[in-house]
Write a structure and sequence with these properties.
Length: about 300
Amino acid sequence: MIVSVQNLTHFYGQRAALSKVSFGVEEREIFGLLGPNGGGKSTLFRILATMMTPSEGRASIAGFDVESQSAEVRKRIGVVFQSQSLDKKLTVAENLRFQGHLYGLSGALLRERVDEVVARLGLSDRREDLVDTLSGGLRRRVEVAKALLHKPQVLLMDEPSTGLDPSARRELWQYVESLRELRGVTVLLTTHILEEADKCGRLILLHEGRIVAEGAPAQLKAKIGGDVVELQVIDAEAMRPELERRLGVTPKVVDGSLHIEIGDGHRFIAAVVEAFPGAIQAVALHKPTLEDVFVHETGASITWDQLPR
């Protein structure tokens, strides 16, 4: 395991942001931390990035402890933060050279590394442009270039698609996947975007500081099986026990809607409309998603929690 997390716990005052979190990440893997704001993703990210120390437990990257051997860990990780860390008044090349100096790079080696990362990220024709003039997608590429300048073994990315349009998001993911395939870089990212989480080889679902599910996206969705039916009604809490009593299902109330996991969704829809004439305002039917897995495990929506992270 190139990343190992064992019983990691962290408190903010009396509140546990993380509680006995354990997992491992293999080399060359794209591994995701999926959950709502307030679920513990960013606290875990900051600990792995050596920005804070855990209250309990331990974590290591490439065999080095993130707390007691943080300097060695920093040599082996590249970090892309959710918030921008570029100097807008410098050019792309100047930002990269400054980053290189922080890692002890200089002279011909630094020039070679800058040339390599700008070429790989399609920034060669923008290297002398001020960052202030770049689009959000291009700035994100520069952030990734900075993180890769010293050739890390592990790339940590906090909400990598923040501020990107769909086209820029696709381009970024193509490059991330090429890093794994061509350079053998291990990628660990946090996200609350389901489409992004689906691209991970494996992921953990975090809720209130605990792991509620772990595995490949397809494996997690297979736990539900069948279909997911969503019913919009006037009073979901009042209707839930009636559905249980009359149709033998176990709905969950999520964001004011009723969610039912069932084998033959289309037949159930016909039955529920017949059983409750005029009570159903809208119906949706779909195959299980990672959002549904989260609802299944927690009874909450990925986006429900707006607490600070």
